[in-house]
UniProtKB/TrEMBL annotation:
PROSITE patterns given in the database record: PSI_RLU, S4
Keywords per UniProt: Isomerase, RNA-binding, rRNA processing
Segments forming domain RNA-binding S4: 23-82
Function field: Responsible for synthesis of pseudouridine from uracil at positions 955, 2504 and 2580 in 23S ribosomal RNA.
Name of the protein this chain belongs to: Pseudouridine synthase
Active site: 147
Native species: Haemophilus sputorum
Organism domain of life: Bacteria
Amino acid sequence: MTTEKIISASVQFLDISEDEAGQRLDNFLLAKLKGVPKSLIYRIVRKGEVRVNKGRVKPEYKLQAQDVVRVPPVRVAEKNEAPISTKLNKVTELEQQILYEDEVLLVINKPSGIAVHGGSGLNFGVIEALRALRPQARFLELVHRIDRDTSGILLIAKKRSALRHLHEQLREKTVQKDYLALVRGQWQSHVKAIKAPLLKNELASGERIVKVSEAGKPSETRFQIEERYGQEATLVKASPVTGRTHQIRVHTQYAGHPIACDDKYGEAEFDAKMQTLGLNRLFLHAYSIRFTHPKTGEEMVITAPLDKTLKGVLAKLRQN
């Protein structure tokens, strides 16, 4: 028997604060009515059950400070989902991975193997875990994303004004992100940048595969050699200028130097060798970020150390 969960039992009138201004109505409602399908949100807006300042508006309406949003009672079918357990090792581990925190910003060193958000068959990701660990937090949103298998720096905004400010910096490309990647073979010194358009394909399974294609979006990654390990491998610093899905992974593969233990774009023989050195994950780590603090205007540079596994692999490569 399907039970119903009451998201909003009675009509609510929500006053929009300065911090909430500027966002689209549909995004605001998705955040406020957690668990409500997008289709239902668009339906109640279209039918005029949601009103702003007593008038009908479209889902893309940009909210202004002092707007009053009328939200009708909402019921959805109850799903028998287990709540996120804050005892899960990977969830509690996140508290140990905080690199920086203040009243508007949280920066964590995301472990490999945790998605940044739920979806694609996953019950939870970093953002859901942090919300479960901090139920008192009024606002926690991802500033950007990194792949599930990539470790390293992830920015989370604690205020909408900070999220807007950081998104603007990302759009203007004033945020400097640097990754460390262990790639196959000897990276050529003269290859300092790869500009190759990337096309994203989604398979029937929901898996995303990206390839270099003239039909794709312009993409650029800059590279610098950090350390060589004979003929076998090179540690490179990769700095994406654009922010496409799997960009660094595909650009290194395109250059003939796939990243170690990349299950989508890697090379089996090289991966097998790296596994004998103890590598059990993708060797891609977001190790440094430079941006302007959204409140103080100060230039921030935050670095995230490599985990024990990655450090151990490099130590063994130096001995070879």
